[in-house]
Design brief:
The protein is mostly beta strands and 244 residues long. It has no helices and 19 strands.
C-alpha cells in the first residue's frame, strides 16, 4: 500500500480579536474655588500619576474669567478641545505621552482675567495609543435652567476606545449623575457655582454614544465628550495544519 499524504492547509480567516492592551484608570482628584474664589489661579492637591500615559482634565469657570489654560508641575503640553461658552467656560483638556510621577499637581489659569467660580477634575490613565496623539472624536453641548443635558453624540473610529465626558454646572451643592454605563471618576459639589464632574466608559465594539447628565436643582449646564484610541488590537493567527 502506498501511503497517501494529504496536506490540508487551514487559512487564518481571523479568529476573534484579542485586545493587545487594557485601559487602566489610575489616580484622580478635583479642585474648586470655595465661595467663588478671589480671582487667583486654582491648583489641585498632589497625586501620584506614576505609570500612566494620558492625563485628562475638565475645567469649568465663570464665563467672565475668559479663556482657561492648564499647566502642571511636570511641565506637560496640554491640548484643549472645543470650549463651551455660555454662562460658563467649560473645556476638556488632555496631555499624552505625559511626564508623570509622584507629587503631581495641576493648575488652571485665566488668560488676561481673574479666575472666578472655577473648578476642575483630573484623571490619569494608562493604555492609550503610544507615540502619537490618541484623540479621536469629540462633541459638546449646553443648556439653561434644566435638570438634564446630553453631551451630543460621538462614534469612535475603532473598538475599545476610552470615552471621557466632563460636566460643568451652576447648580450648588448637587451631586450629578450620568447614564449609559459611564462611571463618574470624581466630582466637586462645593458651594459657589463650581460643580464639575468627570466620567469615563471603556467601549467594546465601536458604536454611537450620547449619555445624559442629570443634576438637581436645574441650572445652566455644559458638557463635553471625547474618545481616545488605544493601540491597534491583535488577532490570533491559525497556523497551517499537516495531516498524513
Amino acid at each position: 500500500m502506498h501511503s497517501v499524504i494529504k496536506y490540508i492547509v487551514l487559512l487564518a480567516l481571523l479568529a476573534a480579536p484579542l485586545p493587545a492592551f487594557a485601559w487602566t484608570i489610575s489616580t484622580h482628584t478635583c479642585a474648586a474655588q470655595v465661595g467663588g474664589g478671589d480671582g487667583s489661579d486654582l491648583t489641585s492637591s498632589s497625586i501620584d500619576t506614576s505609570g500612566t500615559t494620558l492625563l485628562l482634565l475638565y475645567s469649568s469657570v465663570y464665563i467672565g474669567s475668559g479663556t482657561v489654560s492648564v499647566s502642571d508641575s511636570k511641565s506637560n503640553t496640554w491640548n484643549g478641545l472645543t470650549n463651551v461658552a455660555d454662562s460658563r467656560n467649560s473645556r476638556l483638556f488632555y496631555a499624552y505621552n505625559a511626564t508623570v510621577g509622584s507629587g503631581h499637581t495641576f493648575t488652571i489659569s485665566a488668560s488676561g482675567a481673574s479666575l472666578f467660580n472655577g473648578a476642575f477634575c483630573i484623571m490619569s490613565v494608562s493604555g492609550s495609543l503610544s507615540g502619537s496623539d490618541p484623540f479621536d472624536v469629540q462633541n459638546t453641548n449646553f443648556n439653561s435652567d434644566a435638570g438634564t443635558l446630553t453631551t451630543g453624540s460621538i462614534t469612535p473610529s475603532q473598538n475599545s476606545e476610552l470615552i471621557v465626558s466632563g460636566f460643568g454646572s451652576a447648580a450648588n451643592n448637587s451631586a450629578p449623575t450620568i447614564d449609559t454605563g459611564f462611571t463618574i471618576i470624581d466630582s466637586s459639589t462645593g458651594a459657589g457655582h463650581d460643580l464639575v464632574a468627570l466620567a469615563y466608559l471603556v467601549q467594546g465594539t465601536a458604536s454611537s454614544v450620547n449619555p445624559t447628565w442629570t443634576v438637581d436643582p436645574p441650572a445652566s449646564n455644559q458638557a463635553g465628550i471625547a474618545s481616545f484610541k488605544g493601540p491597534a488590537t491583535a488577532r490570533r493567527p491559525i497556523g497551517a495544519v499537516l495531516f498524513r
